[in-house]
Amino acid sequence: MESLWPLSLQAGWDASGVVAGRPEQPIRRIHWAVDPVQAVADEAVELGADLLITHHPLFLKPVNSMAATTFKGKVVHTLVENSCALITAHTNADSAVGGVSDVLAEILGLENIEPLAAVDDGLVEEGIGRVGTLQQAMRLEEFAARVYSAMPAVAGGVRVAGDADGIVSKVAITGGAGDSLFDYVRQHEADVYITADLRHHPASEAREQAMMGSDRPYLIDVSHFASEWLWLPAGANALERALADEGFTVTSAVSALNTDPWDFIMTSGQNTTTIHSGTE
User: What does the record list as coiled-coil region(s) (predicted)?
Assistant: First the structure.
């Protein structure tokens, strides 16, 4: 894992790496998921996994207790008591070649791919996010449909800001939350920016600034979970191949559990919700 997704690539605030497990423990079955939540831990144990690899850290912030009376403590107890180790690969897997944003770029058919924000040591292929070009320019609505069809189904769907008939060719992507990277998106002169968890103020300000000029970048807001789940099969395959090259054989399974935190969405539309202005 260190050769594929070096911990040196993780952000200073991150907490990737080994979370639980004995160094001498044999690893035969690996389970992959985005979030180290209880349902995922139960699934890993049920499938007889020796190791659970998740994208998101369990202990991103310090805790004072790992008692099973807390939800994080219960996850740790479930795994440890069933001899299942836990390793997380978060921003190091975002930045590495073949990481989260690379997989997104490949699935969406981008070419001439480069990092959106290169890592500090100047490695030209590694960094947060990716920028690339479409083989053939298309309408924003058409491209948004391609993004939607590529994502696992979640309640929130895909939100789009921009002219549906606007033409897009250059695409910026950040798997997970990326509303802190708008300056890089503008530097690359991307036509559209795909990321997750776009908050109101950064999104509104980005659109207002865009409309002062070329109206770019358009915005496509996707599910945080969905955008990062797409990396899991590629990550599992890469690790299996790397281990096989060293003479080790493991079996991998990717969780199909939807751990997006939202269960359903209500929107206004014909025959659903009527909004009245003023008083009746």
Answer: none
What are the residue ranges spanned by the domains of the chain?
A: 7-92+229-253, 94-224
Banded model confidence at residue 280, pLDDT cuts 50, 70, 90 = very low
Q: Do the Cβ atoms of 242 and 3 come closer than 8 Å?
A: yes
Buried b (16+ CB within 10 A) or exposed e, 55-88: bbbbeeeeeeebeeeeebeebbbbbeeeebbbbb
Length of the chain: 280
Pairing of strands 17-20, 167-177: unpaired
Q: What is the mean pLDDT of the chain?
A: 92
- Alpha helices (H) along 151-230: 182-187, 200-210, 224-229
CA atoms within 13 A on the CB side of 207: 14
Q: 240 Cβ partners below 8 Å, 6+ apart? A: 250, 252
Q: Indicate the CATH number for domain 94-224.
A: 3.40.1390.30
Q: Is 271 left (phi over 0), alpha (psi -120 to 50) or beta?
A: left
Query: How open is the CA angle 1-51-57, to the nearest 5 degrees?
Result: 70
